Amino acid sequence: MDVRLPLTSAGVCLAVLLSACSPSEEKRQVSLEEKTAQFEKSLDAIEDPKLKNAVAELGGSLLLLERAQLKLDSKPLETEYGEDVLAVLKHYPTPQALVDTYINGLFVLLRDSSSDYLTDLQPVFPFNFSIPAAFLFPHGLEWQSVTLSNKRVIAFQPEWSETDPGIQLSPSSSNLTDPDDLTVAYPFIDGLDADIKSQPQPVSLQGTVEVIAPGRLYSFDLTKKDVGQTRTNDNLSVTLIKLGTNYAEVEFSNSAPQAAETGEAQLNPLIVQARDATGQFLSRSGSINETAAQIVFYQQQLAKMQQQKAWSEVLEKQLDDEQRNFEKQQSHRYAKVYFNGPIETLEVSLLDFSTATVTSKELNLPVRRFDRITTEKTIQPLNLPVVVYDDQAPSWLRGAALTEDQLKKGVNISQSVEDPSAARIEFNHLRSFNDELLGTSFNPGESPVTFFTEDSRGKRDEPIELPPEAYEVDPLRGSITYDLNLFPETPAYVVGSIPLFLATVDKKTLDAHQLPKGLELKGNTLVVDLKLFPEQDWRFFAKDDSGHYLKEILAVNHVASTEGPALFAVHYFYGQPTRLETYQRTDLATVPYGFEVRLDKADLTKLPQ
């Protein structure tokens, strides 16, 4: 949840946070709901459509800001770890080198669609970002056209048109989470069978990309003793206003003017990260980026708008002038950043845009096809001129040495009693590398389960005798489903055992020049003989001379026929491997997980009479 003004740009993004509220928070919630109802009522009284839209946008954003603050303040303090968002930058000597890798590592995959009339194009980026700011630097990517195999060029259009009879290039409707994915739509001809292979195929995708790289990045390491202090490095300064249990309030500034090359780009130079006492990075839960003075200013602008009868150019100019003058007076910027867990240390980083490099490039990218399974005998090259590291690999691979105690401690038990005839208990655990190597040969063993009533003190009492059909244990999915229709008494506890599975993993490190039979490195590709290294038992990770894991681009299994066994696998990497790590599952153990769960109370009125 990150909320940022100016509100007139509606720059608000909310994630739904489910949390319990204290009595004071419940009062704030009621007050907010009343305020929202009053605002909507006042909005209905405005007749001028332009004025109504302006008031709705500003007032709605202020209410959304207040709602976000309430959600963030009331979120339970539960520790959740994240990643070092600056790790990717630390692999490159300059910010510009990161930009060049981002642009030169981009390529386009052709994907089959579920429709006979559609072909999907998937741009593949060298970096995956899960942080709120996505790519670290301001950037823009615009697709312009696709060139087909018959040399015809189809222009990009923002929406697919039902009335356009020709071939169209538009954003993909099947992947709403990735706005860069595209679809080539072929015309539908009623009465004729579709044969997409007879249509001209996309061979290249055209577009433009622009990235603004800051001249430098500087990080300030702060703790509680820095509260109230201003730390400075040349033109950059940071003041830690407050450090709460799970949030930090900071002010920051750049005394040098913004580089002329950045133009009118909206720049967010601040990156705040926190660690807890273990030294691990905490994940962010959101931020509020407006001071109390800023909120008061926008409330005053809203009140002025609400006093008007109609929108006018004079009013618009007055509001714009007031906003510009107000922003000129703000020499410092502010952020209140929330984290999932108690903060021990803070890392506040600033991107310095007083000097900047703008990289603009016309893109003409070949459309490549790499199916997950192919009958092709030859290995298709995919050698991109960049090196990209996998910063998640070290923590992911710790799962290769997972112990029984660690596996058990990671179990999370959840319940669902909305349907009393199919109430559920689920035993989930955080997915790790160990899960990747479990294979399919499970021996779940016995899963004894007994339901109990409770006594007058709420403690576990007598076991309930049940027919076999009253409950069902699914040991492989880690779930218990029970039907309260078939219970002679209301259950309060369930006691039993559910199986967990733990692989024994053997790790080896190999030199790229001394690989065993069945493994071969060809440039940036690793070829694996699947008869000697079966896929369900083996995993491979590559490093270069830096000692960092190389990121895998994709993998392809080559088969003898569409129904035949896999012959060999090809793994493509961003970079040249010089060392290989192999992980082999040598054993699979069943770990009984004993439990006693107090059951959530179901609404028995929902049971059929």
Quantity of strands, as a count: 30
Portion of residues in beta strands equals 35-45%
Mean pLDDT: 88
Unreliable parts? 1-23
Shape descriptor reads: globular
Biggest β-sheet, characterized?
9 strands, mixed
Judged by helices, strands and strand pairing, the structural class is alpha+beta
Radius of gyration: 29 Å
Number of helices: 9
Distance N to C terminus: 45 Å
Helix percent reads: 10-25%
Would you mind describing this structure in some detail?
- There is one protein chain.
- This protein is of the alpha+beta class and about 600 residues long.
- Among the domains are: about 90-210, no CATH class; about 370-609, no CATH class.
- It has helices at about 25-45, 50-75, 85-90, 95-105, 290-305, 315-330, 395, 405-410, 435; strands spanning about 1-5, 10-15, 105-110, 120-125, 140-150, 155, 170, 180-185, 200-220, 230-235, 235-245, 245-255, 270-275, 285-290, 335-340, 345-370, 375, 410-415, 425-430, 450-455, 460-465, 470-475, 480, 495-510, 520, 525-530, 540-545, 550-560, 565-575, 580-600.
- The model is unreliable at about 1-25 (pLDDT under 50).
